[in-house]
């Protein structure tokens, strides 16, 4: 085998998400994870189909300062995924330092397909399943609670300190709906609404902890980990 020859593409997943074109490529030596502008999609796919080096293609088409993440398959210590997310995390070691790289795939079936291809290269794995932590489950509720606090709680508290209606015409276009709501229900009403939303999110968190998603870690058997 020619060590200077470009790595051969084995499989890939690609999709457009939040105005970004996301692509994950598995070659015979690496996992390559990249995100770039949607306008680069056709050029990338054409170059890959023509047999060009995937690393060079994705480096060339990545935004300035945001090159692809490259993980050598031989460095992988474990793979990790959750039953409710289309993500796959590779834990690996480089120069004695433990690192990890997470990729988001287009669907959970595609995540499983990418995982299976990687496992073919790293060899038989021992899988360990465990319930996801309460903090993993709470990421969504806590994030939305923070937003509710910013949107409803802080304006409500400011309104209690400085009571009076808001001049809607002096508010930015994005804030006019909230200003009208404030004038309609007042600061106490705004605080009550924010509190109700946060309470509902915390209840959602509690209920979700009753049936948590499964976290799976697969470690190559031959590494004795």
Q: Can you give a write-up of this model?
A:
- This protein has a five-stranded antiparallel β-sheet with strand order 7-6-5-9-8. A four-stranded antiparallel β-sheet has the order 1-2-3-4, with helices on both faces.
- Helices cover 42% and strands 29% of the residues.
- A hairpin with a 2-residue loop joins strand 6 and strand 7.
- The chain is built from five helices and nine strands, in the order E-E-E-H-H-E-E-E-E-H-E-H-H-E.
- The protein starts with 8 loop residues before the first strand and ends in a 5-residue tail after the last strand.
- Helix 4 (134-161) runs antiparallel to helix 5 (176-210).
- The protein is an alpha+beta fold.
Helical residues, percent: 40-55%
Q: Approximately what portion of the residues adopt beta-strand conformation? A: 25-35%
Cα distance, first to last residue?
Answer: 30 Å
Supply the number of helical segments.
Answer: 5
Total strand segments: 9
Largest sheet: 5 strands, antiparallel
Helix/strand/pairing category: alpha+beta
N-to-C order of helices and strands: EEEHHEEEEHEHHE
Q: Looking across the biggest beta sheet, what order are the strands in? A: 7-6-5-9-8
Model regions low in confidence, pLDDT < 50 over at least 5 residues = none
Radius of gyration: 24 Å
What's the average pLDDT? 89
Mass-distribution shape: elongated
